[in-house]
Design brief:
Helices cover 57% and strands 13% of the residues. By secondary structure, the chain is α/β, with parallel strands linked by helices. It has an eight-stranded mixed beta barrel with strand order 10-11-13-14-15-16-17-18, surrounded by four helices. The chain has a five-stranded mixed beta sheet with strand order 4-5-3-8-9, sandwiched between helices. A two-stranded antiparallel sheet has the order 1-2. The chain is elongated and about 105 Å long.
Length: 703
């Protein structure tokens, strides 16, 4: 993976490398070496050495500062080497004439000693980096203290050279220039850098987690810089200054190759994972919604766009009979066949488990129907999955913009209605949305009408699901979950009525009631002497948009007597990113109240991570879709591990949702996840059952 702007930087590095040849030819003649005033040279030299010291420190941090489970022995060895480089460069910088004397009088000879030590340390460290395998450092626990041993050796050696630099033969003679020993050692450094560059080419496939081109440029520029240190006569000369200049540029590319790449890589991977499906490599729901939004903005009345929502028929049977591994292979094969059957300009994404969605721009309903028919024909052929030959059909729902709707949410809702009608019509067919698909709409209208009175008629209730601290097993809090028992409709699922409440605006009075009731219940438990922990309450997007949200919550806390620190608000990523300015103001006000903020369903929402550093976030909740198949699914385990590492590095609490098996819990514990909730411990319970659970002891109840 390349850093942004990598091509331009690589071109600049190649030009610098090419320019070194005529510059060396020019400076190889002593008469062409211009003398620079001592103060000017000292100032320029100081600035360049400070930059080099910073880069060396960053390389050390890359090897030792990352999470222990992500460290490699190779990067730790390089880090130790550049710890030495940083120390030697500091002493080289401080030993220059014009700087205060250290233990012994400063001199060019003394400064050159530390210079050569630093160059050999860098060369040996880079050689080890290229030759060593990418072995996890956790296999060698003692390696975490290696830097201390290196530092002890460095301090001892440095003290000896500072106190008695004369014990080493002269490197520079005033009036004569460099000694043969110094020139020989510089040639040795040059040869070491060239050897490392050759080995880097030979072992290119084994070198991971760094930018190859930048590392190669760094080595070649360092080698070119060494040649200037072979030809200079006077210390304060253009040849010496050019050598230091090439060293600075070389260190810049080293910074890009190792430190910048290592720091930015997890965030780029996370952004990619949040916008793409790991199994098929296709864009995911979030990426598709962004694409559809853009298409709607650019569409015209005479150039509509169409959406095709596909669902595999009876796909669950494949998982149940052949296993999830075969099911995953089938999904990959289906995705490839659909992609090859589509027009090149079509945008395809994996919408959910066995659902795919396609965007056709500048396409009418008739054109979309033709594409849908082509897909049905393509799916009629069997799939060869290992030793199995599988047949599977698809059902397709089609909507068009602007005929069927003028927003992403409406279009996708109607596409889903059309898809369900296709399934109810016998499957293996397509259905274009039309107004006769009114049954679902009528159900929604009925839900909205009954929901308006549900609160006043006391049909709504809260159940509470406990959260555990994984390490200790103790209860740390509860999440309030809304339930609706309608006398007319029976038990209505939250997945059905909450979207209706959000779309109709009823979520605001219902959400206020949920907040107050949850706070009241938590305070009641506290008054009974129960160690209930914190209470988590979900906020909808519409609630979060309220400018007076902080005031309403403050009033609710005051009325119920609950302390702000005992309340945690769960907000989705899309709610935060919906309006950044509003989010910033609301989150700042909530932070002033002392309320904890958790990002719910983390990893399934908006693809930007900027809000994690911009806003005061305390907790990340890993969505249950990533927990469901761990530890068996490599993709899900990678995502979960990355989220936990990200949370740890940002000092955030991380909670896993939907934990149902001991294997899932063991994996989360091994990767240092903080908290968990799910059916493994308890289903959401009414208040009375919660009291019994707390009194009995959650650990005993789980057992």
């Amino acid at each position: 993976m390349r850093l942004p702007g990598q091509t331009g930087h690589r071109l600049a590095g190649m030009l610098l490398l090419a320019a070194s040849i005529p510059l060396l030819v020019w400076q190889a003649v002593p008469a062409n070496q211009l003398t620079i005033s001592a103060p000017a040279f000292l100032a320029a030299h100081s600035m360049m050495e400070i930059f080099a010291i910073i880069v060396a420190a960053l390389v050390f941090f890359t090897g030792h500062g990352v999470q222990e489970t992500m460290r490699s022995t190779r990067s730790m060895v390089l880090g130790c080497a550049f710890l030495a480089v940083a120390l030697f460069d500091i002493l080289h910088f401080l030993s220059y004439l014009g700087m205060p004397d250290l233990l012994s009088p400063n001199s060019p000879h003394k400064s050159i000693l530390f210079w050569l030590c630093g160059r050999y340390a860098a060369g040996i460290g880079l050689l080890a980096y290229v030759l060593l395998p990418e072995t996890p450092a956790v296999r060698f626990p003692a390696s975490r203290y290696g830097w201390a041993g290196v530092l002890l050796v460095l301090v001892t050696l440095s003290y000896g050279l500072l106190a008695s630099p004369h014990i080493v033969p002269a490197m520079y003679v005033t009036g004569q220039g460099l000694t043969p020993l110094k020139i020989t050692l510089e040639w040795g450094v040059f040869g070491l850098y060239i050897a490392v560059a050759v080995l880097l080419v030979v072992r290119r496939k084994q070198i991971t987690n760094c930018d190859f081109e930048s590392l190669m440029l760094a080595l070649l520029l360092m080698a070119a810089g060494e040649l200037f240190f072979i030809v200079y006569v006077e210390v304060s000369s253009t040849a010496n200054l050019l050598g230091h200049t090439y060293k600075v540029f070389a260190y810049y590319f080293l910074y890009r190759a190792i430190y910048a790449e290592a720091v930015s890589r997890p965030f780029r991977q996370m952004r990619h994972m949040l916008s793409h499906d790991d199994l098929t490599g296709l864009p995911n729901r979030t990426a598709f919604n962004d694409k559809l939004n853009l298409a709607i903005e650019h569409a015209r009345q005479d150039a509509p766009c169409a959406v095709l929502l596909l669902d595999l028929d009876h796909f669950q049977n494949v998982n149940d009979t052949l296993g999830h591994e075969q099911g995953d292979l089938l999904l990959v094969a289906v995705a490839q066949r659909i992609r090859t059957s589509l027009p090149k300009a079509a945008f395809m994404a994996r919408f959910s488990g066995d659902e795919f969605v396609i965007l056709l721009e500048n396409a009418t309903a008739e054109r979309a129907k033709q594409v849908g028919q082509d897909l049905l024909q393509a799916m009629a052929h069997e799939f060869d999955i290992g030793n199995d030959r599988l047949e599977i059909s698809v059902s397709i729902g089609i909507v068009t913009y602007p005929t069927n709707g003028e927003s992403v949410s409406i279009l996708m809702r109607y596409a889903d209605l059309a898809l369900h009608r296709a399934k109810s019509s016998g499957r293996n067919c397509l259905m274009v949305f039309s107004r006769d698909l009114s049954e679902a709409l009528q159900r929604r209208v009925l839900l909205e009408a009954r929901l308006k009175h549900a609160l006043a008629r006391e049909e709504l209730a809260l159940h509470y699901q406990p959260k555990l601290e994984i390490r200790s097993g103790r209860l740390v809090g509860w999440e309030a979950l809304l339930r609706w028992q309608s006398p007319e409709l029976g038990a209505v699922s939250p997945e059905e009525f909450i979207p209706v409440a959000e779309q109709s605006g009823l979520i605001l009075p219902i959400g206020d009631w949920v907040l107050r009731e949850a706070c009241r219940q938590m305070r009641a438990w506290q008054d009974q002497g129960l160690a209930a922990g914190t209470m988590a309450v979900n906020l909808s997007t519409r609630q979060f948009r309220q400018t007076d949200l902080a005031e309403e919550i403050s009033v609710a806390l005051r009325d119920t007597g609950l302390a702000p620190g005992d309340l945690e608000l769960e907000i989705t990523e899309s709610s935060i990113m919906d309006n950044l300015d509003t989010a910033a103001n609301v989150l700042a006000e909530l932070e002033q109240l002392g309320i904890r903020i958790a990002v719910d369903d983390f990893g399934t929402g908006y693809s930007s991570l900027s809000y994690l550093k911009t806003f005061s976030i305390h907790c990340l909740k890993i969505d249950r879709s990533f927990i469901r198949d761990i530890p068996g699914d490599d993709n899900d385990t990678a995502i979960v591990r990355t989220i936990i590492a990200l949370a740890m590095n940002l000092d955030l609490t991380v909670v896993a949702e939907g934990v149902e098996t001991e294997a899932q819990l063991a994996y989360l514990r091994a990767n240092h996840c903080d908290q968990a909730q799910g059916y493994l411990f308890s289903r959401p319970l009414p208040p009375g059952e919660c009291i019994k659970l707390m009194r009995k002891g959650l650990r005993q109840a789980a057992a």
